Amino acid sequence: MPFIVDSVKRDLTAVVEWGRQKMQEGDYEKATQHFCMALDLRPGFLQALVSRGFCYLALGEEERAQRDFADVVQKDAGFNRNIYVLMSLSLKRTGDLHGAIRYLNRCLSLFPNFKPALLARGELCLKVQDFERARSDFRQVLQDEPVHLVARRGLADSLRGLGNFLEALRQYSRGISDTSQAMEHQLEQQDQGPEQEEPEEEKLQPEARDGSENDNGISALPETELPQDSPSKHSNEDSPHRQGDERAEAAEAEPRELRAFLVELLMRRALMLRLMGNLEAAGSDFLEVLELEPEDGLALFWYGKILIEQQRHQEAVVYLKASLDYHEPTRMAAHAILGALLMTASEPHFMQAQLHLKEAAQLAPASQAVRITLLICSAAVALSGKNRDRKKALSLLDRALAALEGEQREPEGSRTAHASLGHVAGSGGAAAAMLLARSRSAEEARWLAARTLVKSQQAMAKGDDLEQALQCRSFLQLVAREPQQRAAAVPSLLFQLRVTALCDLCRWEEAVSDCRHALIVDPGDEGIQFTMHVSAGILKFQDLKFEASIGCFTKAIRLQPVNVQARLHRAIALACAAWARGMEGSTQETARVVQLLTDSVQDLEAVEQQAMITGVMAPLGAAHLRAACLCSLGRLHDAWEALCESGRRCAGRRSSLEGPDLSAPRQRALEAELLVLLERHSEAIEACSAVLALNSRGHADARVMRAWCLSEIGDVDAAFEDVAAALALAPERADLQEVEGDLCLQYGRLADAFNAFGKALKLREPRTARLAFKRALAQLKVGHLTGAELELGKALRACPTGMVPLARAKDAVGILSLMFKSDWRHAHVRLNMLLQSCPAPMQDGLPVIFLPHELMVYRGACSLYLGDATAIQDFTVALELAGHFFEAEGDSSKETTFGEGRIGLAYFECECTFNLALCQLRSKSYAGALANLEKLCERMEEMEICATAMGLVWFLCGICHLALDSATEQFAKEAFSRSYSYDTAYVDDFLLRNGSQMSQEEDRPEKPRPLGGPPGREEEGKEDLPTVVCCLQLSSDKDSQDAENTQSRSARRFLSALAPIRIKVRDVVIWGRPSISWPSIPPVRWKPRTSLARLDFLQQRDPLSMTPGNPPSGENPEDNNF
Fold first, then answer.
1. Which tens digits make up the pLDDT trace of 345-377?
2. What backbone torsions phi and psi does residue 117 show, to the nearest 5 degrees?
3. pLDDT value for 377
4. Burial grade of 328 (CB within 10 A; 0-12, 13-18, 19 or more)
């Protein structure tokens, strides 16, 4: 609709005046129409162009405003200096800061002291970081007007940009002081009341450039578009409302504007003080701001940030929460920092922290720091509570770690930019300067350090305070307490959460690695150190490095002495180390094994005591392991008592559990094993049967234990059946093959024993000397000396540490071979050497063979064949040694060494007595021989020895009577009669050989024959019979044919292989052999080794929980009892 104007108002002056009136009313659109009408009436009218440009600027049409202002400047550059300020304002709005500065430069070249232009250019130079020119402009203003508040603030800002912090701080303080004085003056004026009259406004009219207009076309600039947002109007020099005195203008300003300006100055000074590291003074300024404006959200946020930097995290939470309601720009940062504070509190609240971080993520979806912090918090939430999702937490943490590592791999230029805008600690430039200064003089070093510091200050001063304060990879850096944590690329909490998840998933190697990364960030974190030592101990435990794992667990216990889990872990490692050393079987390790088991028991007792103190039930597995360790220490009754207590706890738990009790199978298994060791065979058989019926595992070991109990009560066939069943269940187990060999060796099945030991030897790697020695025992029992010697050689090669007892046994077997070959002299020499060494105990509880009294008998036999009179001394010493050995050994050793205890010793004494009598007959000491033979007769009658042996002794008694005197002929006949009543062979042979020639035999010359040689050919057929040679054999023919008396058969074969000795007694000749027993080979008294109950505990299953929970995937639930 066309604009209608009264005919009177169509005058140009009237149109312009109407436009100005509309401008004052704020109706810029109508004002623009009036000015367009004026320009239509008079094109190029400068006042109308200026006014229309101003209206366009007020309406936000900067391009139109710029065209109008440009036309004015082009037509008359000096028309009005405010045009340049308006043009710069328009260019500033469009982002052309340098263009705005160029117009202001042009203005100041024409009007050098125009303060609005100086102020505007100073502000624009601050924005383009031309701080030197800004300082010059603000100083020029302050030279004329020292109390100019905006110029004072601008000067302080420029000095801060130049890095001159102290001078900037002084200018801020002076500005604050001036503003406070202005506010006080304003309050005084308000108390005095309004002035009576105000002077009439004076309009300043510039010189008319065109000779027709007096007005410059600008009545006032809009307050919102002042170049410096000044709280006073004194910066508009050509305003029609300008007052004369600058302090009076400040006093007349609105109180709200002065208060806002003071708040701004306090904020800037506080931020300046924060940059300088004076947090206490900065906090005081922020508190002063909050006294002036309690709802200033920015001040609330910054004060909360200052409290965090002062390590007052709990107080900061209140201010940050308050800032959420009053300041929109910092709301995202406040939410993120609150979330980080809740995550790192002494009692973390991860759920609340997650809510804050989600709000921050919604406000700033592109913020990488918020996203990373939210990922870490979500992982913490996944690891908290009862239903812990470890895999989800680990996935979230891996994503966060990948994002952080991606930031670390930024280009060099980007890293430098971040460093320059980084934390107060700087980017490391000072350290680089110090490294460079090593090769320079002291003065140059100081100069370089100062230069580096100035550059660092300038870089910090040029940056935005809020941007610098929020510069981080994750918001956990902003709330970290230590400088090392604040500078770390990856927060320590991320590694801690990863360690927790990895430990729950039993990924110990990765857990140790993450612990080390966390300790690099926070070396003093004892919790991480504790977890690292525990994880490293479990890792070494899995590598079977038990001693090293004990050291790791000990370090963990030193950090947390009352921690139950660490002591449980160490108890397990100690028990395993003891078991490993016990498997070596060396005597030197026995004391160490006992010490390790004792330490394990002490740790388990400490666990029980700590559980009683805290009122928490100790893990049931700890009681089971304690019983197992006590059992290994031989404290069987203490172990049984501990097991009974755990049994009562098992019964109590079973009544409260809905599902199956996972501890019951182990309880039954331990009861079975302990009853076996207590030799309560009937109860042990029942317990083993219960294990077989109710447990889902350990059947092979249970059958072995039951087999031993059955063998002990005499049910041998059932024992062999159980061992065969155990082998069928686990044929690959070398220990079961060895058990079968031990059982066969004990009951005389020597071929089966030899084969079983051979199978065990093939299955066991590395090969052990124990199995080779047992094979040698089997060979020795059947009399295979060559095979026994070979097996003993293998044992020596397998166990060089047990060389003394094995080498002694091998030498003794070689001596037996020499005696079989009748090489008496070499055998005698080697026996002398062997008797000089004391017998050493065998490892693994194996029996010692070739005892000293046996070797003494062998040497006596060699001396007898060699015709040495010392044979009598050897047999006498053998009797004494046997008696001393029998008294010194325990009951079990007596039974294994001498067959059936005292009966075996009596047999040995009978043989030695017979050999003494044989030596005395040969040395013609007939009275001594008769005394020994009569003593032997009495002893043998008490023992109810077989008839053949009785007949031999009575026959020799008769021979002695004949040799002593003819007066004792009657006694000789009586002795022969009694011998004949027992066995006719000796008397018949004597009569056959000597009955018709006794009177002439004394004068007949003796045929030369070698000592110990065979009888003559005419007597060969008779003398080869076993009964014609005087040799005492205490075992009967029936016993020698028994399968279980293979050793008796070997002894008989050994005696028959010895050459008979020709003994001339007066006028008769008899043939005899010494009575030499086969070396006593006690049966290996086997017992089930540590089996299904004990070693099952020696595993690190659940390191961080005391009660059984959901076992990790892939694990047997029965194994997880901690």
1. 988 999 999 999 999 999 999 999 999 999 999
2. -70, -40
3. 93
4. exposed
Contact 39, 45 (CB under 8 A): yes
CB count within 10 Å of CB 13 equals: 13
- pLDDT digit string (tens) for 706-727? 888 888 888 889 989 998 998 9
The neighbour count for residue 307, using CB atoms within 10 Å, is 21
Length of the chain: 1122
Query: Hey, how many other C-beta atoms are within 10 angstroms of the C-beta on 943?
Result: 14
Q: Which residue has the tokens 């009694």?
A: 978
Residue 637's contacts (CB-CB under 8 Å, 6 or more residues apart) are: none
User: Ramachandran region of residue 506, left (φ > 0), alpha (ψ -120 to 50) or beta?
Assistant: left
Positive or negative: CA dihedral 781, 784, 786, 790: negative
CA 232 to chain centre: 69
Secondary structure of 524-562 as H, E, C letters: CCHHHHHHHHHHHHHHHHHCCCHHHHHHHHHHHHHHCCC
CA 184 to chain centre: 68
For residue 1073, the tally of other CB atoms under 10 A from its CB is 24
pLDDT(845) > 90:
no
Which residue, 848, 924, 918, 843, is CA-closest to 889? 848
Which carries the bigger pLDDT value, residue 433 or residue 1067? Answer: 1067
Mean of all residue pLDDT scores within the chain: 77
CB proximity list for 1051: less than 8 A, separation 6 or greater: 1035, 1076, 1077, 1078
Enter the DSSP assignment of 1070.
E
DSSP assignment of 450-500: HHHHHHHHHHHHHS-HHHHHT--SSTTTTT-SSHHHHH-SS-HHHHHHHHH
Q: Are 1036 and 946 in contact (CB under 8 A)?
A: yes
Residue 454 has a pLDDT of 54
On whether the CB atoms of residues 478 and 472 are closer than 8 A, the answer is yes
Please compute the mean of the pLDDT values over residues 1071-1093 and round it to a whole number: 71
Helices (H), 585-619: 590-614
User: What radius of gyration do the chain's Cα atoms show?
Assistant: 56
Q: How many CB atoms lie within 10 A of CB 197?
A: 6
Contact by Cβ (8 Å): 51, 33: no
* For residue 294, cis peptide bond before it (omega within 30 degrees of 0): no
- Closest to 232 (Cα-Cα) out of 139, 144, 150: 150
* pTM, two decimal places: 0.64
CB proximity list for 342: less than 8 A, separation 6 or greater: 317, 348, 349, 350, 352, 353, 356
Position 1094, amino acid: R
| Over residues 494-521, mean pLDDT | 89
Q: Quick one: tokens of 574?
A: 């100690």
Across 427-441, 625-639, 827-841, least confident range: 427-441
SS3 1009: coil
Summarised one tens digit per residue, pLDDT across range 583-607 is 655 555 678 888 888 998 999 888 8
Binning pLDDT at 50, 70 and 90, where does residue 693 land?
Answer: confident
Contacts of residue 523, defined as CB under 8 A and 6 or more positions apart, other chains included, come to: 484
Q: Say which range, 532-536, 617-621, 993-997, has the weakest mean pLDDT.
A: 993-997
Secondary structure (3-state) at 1004: coil
Q: How far apart (Å, rounded) are the C-alpha atoms in residues 1010 and 655?
A: 88
Q: Residue 212's pLDDT band (boundaries 50, 70, 90)?
A: very low
Q: Are strands 1068-1072 and 1061-1065 parallel, antiparallel or unpaired?
A: antiparallel
> For residue 1064, what are the β-bridge partners?
1069
Q: Both tokens of residue 667?
A: 């309880």
Token reading at 491: 């927060």
Give the number of C-alpha atoms closer than 13 A to the C-alpha of residue 908, restricted to the C-beta side.
31
- With b for 16 or more beta-carbon neighbours within 10 A and e for fewer, the 261-287 pattern comes to bbbbbbbbbbbbbbbbeebebbbbbbe
pLDDT value of position 332: 92
Most confident of 377-381, 383-387, 683-687: 377-381
CA dist., res. 151 & res. 119, Å (int): 7
